[in-house]
Amino acid sequence: MSELNVKDKDIVVPGEILAIGMDFLPSYGTYRREDKIIANRLGLMKIEGKVLKTIPLAGRYLPKRNDVIVGQVVDITLNGWIIDFGSPYRSMLPLKDASFDYIAKGADLTRYFALEDYVSAKITNVSSQYVTDVSMKGPGLRKLKGGRIIKVNTHKVPRIIGKKGSMVSMIKTATDFRIVVGQNGLVWVQGEPKKEIIAVNTIKMIEKEAHISGLTEKVKAYLEKETGAKIEDVQVMENDVQ
Amino acid sequence: MTSNKRTDGREFDELRKIQAKAGVIQKADGSAYFKIGDTAAYAAVYGPRELHPRFLQDPKKGLLRCNYNMMPFSAGERVRPGPSRRSKEISMVTQKALLPVVNLDDYPNAVVDVFIELPETDAGSRCAGICAASIALADAGITMKDMVVAVSAGKIGKNLVADLNGEEEHITDEDVADIPIAMIPSTEEITLLQMDGKISQEELLKAIELVKPLLKDIAEIQRKALKDKFKIDGESK
After folding, report:
1. To the nearest whole number, what is the mean pLDDT of chain A?
2. Facing residue for B103 by CB, picked from A40, A128, A130
3. B25 CA to chain A: closest CA distance, Å?
4. Which of B101, B142, B191 to probe by mutation at the A interface, max A CB count within 10 Å?
5. CB-CB under 8 Å, B108 with A40
6. Taking CB atoms and an 8 Å cutoff, what residues of chain A touch B47?
7. ipTM summary value
8. Residue A215: is it exposed, middle or buried by C-beta count within 10 angstroms (0-12/13-18/19+)?
9. How far is it, in rounded angstroms, from Cα A138 to Cα A218?
């Protein structure tokens, strides 16, 4: 008979024995040794029937296909741009995926993206060795001019975006800001300087309190207090998205 | 040693007082503080990040780089800053003690840097460093099979003891052996075993058996430190 040592949503640490017996199956963030299932990273326990997995709470971003990231141009080569997005690995933005314009051979590539420019891009391919290609052909992918970059924990990004983008559109409506959230934990915000502090603080607050339930209500209250009531607008926006 | 107690009043198999905390350095990817008696260690983990120089990159697995450093004011006498023969050796054995648990296959071509700084030392500094580094690695979200725990075993006169302090290490009128041991608690594999002094084979094996349960106690303290980091977050809200 198998025995389970943990509950759903428990914090587990590497080496912790999650279950003994062959009735459970190890998934992400766990492994089996003999008849035991053991955690192999710091994370939040998730039990799905027989399958045991952990959701990471810390760690750097590792590129994943189809993720939208915010990154910085760090080098320019003959074939395109090198984009750094705060992970251990850099990515390549090839000429053909960079723009809908025709880029002639020998053109000055800095006219499109110069060094230190920020862009939002989509990951198109990741190799087993994390050689990564990105593309900027897609809706909303563009050069991020001006504004400001905030760094957040990459594992808290889903919470900042919210269900179908509800959380981020709430901040957008309340502060009238343009915001791009990268899966890699870089967030670009741009808008009226007076409201910048509100937008930045809201994002930091969501990052800090990501594990709390009823966060949407709390964020709504905070935004209302800081900007002056706007509940109806936000709700309409939320419904639109869904 | 003639009495039944040690110079600081501990039992032979009693550890010094331990304090552990995870997440003490905000800018690092993972960090920890570990204090045992009067020996304190800070560990900060940066990475996985891009590895330079590039010739060190390995497409099959990542690299674990450890750096052990005693602060100039940490011991009674001033420690000359910069790498010394001793600190280079301890950096190397720390790396080798941690390597068996870290899944470096997950980070090809990258490096995980571990910096261990000791603001206060009173024997057992490499063990404190390994314990701190192990918490910091877990805190950084690095995938690892288990944590590594370390403590020293030893012999003073005829008595086998655990966790020697500075005073006991410097006893001259009796034979003293000091054996730092690092272990993976779940499998009881030993990843570090060094020795200073003289001991017989049987007594060495006995000394290892003596500290095994103590190492498991330290493992519990490490786990609690990691879990407490999240508990405090939740309660303060």
Report:
1. 89
2. A40
3. 14
4. B142
5. no
6. 60, 88
7. 0.88
8. middle
9. 33
Of B226, B148, B145, give the one whose Cα is nearest residue A57: B226
Q: Is the pLDDT of residue A234 over 80?
A: no
Residue spans of the domains in chain A: they are 3-56, 68-144, 148-241
Q: Which CATH architecture has domain A3-56?
A: Beta Barrel (2.40)
β-pair partners for A29: none
**What is the rounded distance in angstroms from the CA atom of residue B71 to the CA atom of residue B119?**
5
| Domains (range + CATH), chain B | 18-232 (3.30.230.70)
Distance from CA of A185 to the nearest CA of B (A): 13
Confidence grade of residue A226 (pLDDT, cut at 50, 70, 90): confident
Return the residue matching tokens 């007082």. Answer: B17
C-alpha closest to that of B69 among B132, B21, B126: B126
Rg, Å, chain A Cα set: 21
Checking if the pLDDT of A173 tops 90, the result is: no
Q: What is the pLDDT of residue B233?
A: 52
Higher pLDDT, A221 or B235: A221
Q: What is the mean pLDDT of each run of 10 residues along chain B (237 residues)?
A: 77 95 95 97 96 95 97 94 96 97 96 97 96 97 96 94 93 92 95 94 95 96 93 50
CATH match for A148-241 among 3.30.1370.10, 3.30.300.160, 3.40.50.620, 3.40.1010.10: 3.30.1370.10
pLDDT of residue B91: 97
Domains A3-56 and A68-144 share a fold: yes
pLDDT at A236: 42
Structure tokens at B209: 């058996």
pLDDT of residue B232: 53
Residue labelled with tokens 């499998």:
B187
Taking contacts as CB-CB distances below 8 angstroms, the residues of chain A near B230 are 11, 57, 211
Q: What pLDDT is stored for residue B137 in this prediction?
A: 97
Instruction: Decide if A58 and B110 are in contact by the 8 Å CB cutoff.
Output: no
pLDDT for residue B86: 96
What is the rounded distance in angstroms from the CA atom of residue A96 to the CA atom of residue A81?
A: 11
What B226-234 contacts at long range (C-beta under 8 Å, 24+ apart), as own/partner pairs, is B226/A11, B226/A13, B226/A42, B226/B22, B226/B135, B226/B138, B226/B139, B227/A11, B227/A13, B228/B21, B228/B22, B229/B21, B229/B22, B229/B23, B229/B139, B230/A11, B230/A57, B230/A211, B233/A208, B233/A211, B234/A211, B234/A212
CATH for the stretch A68-144: 2.40.50.140
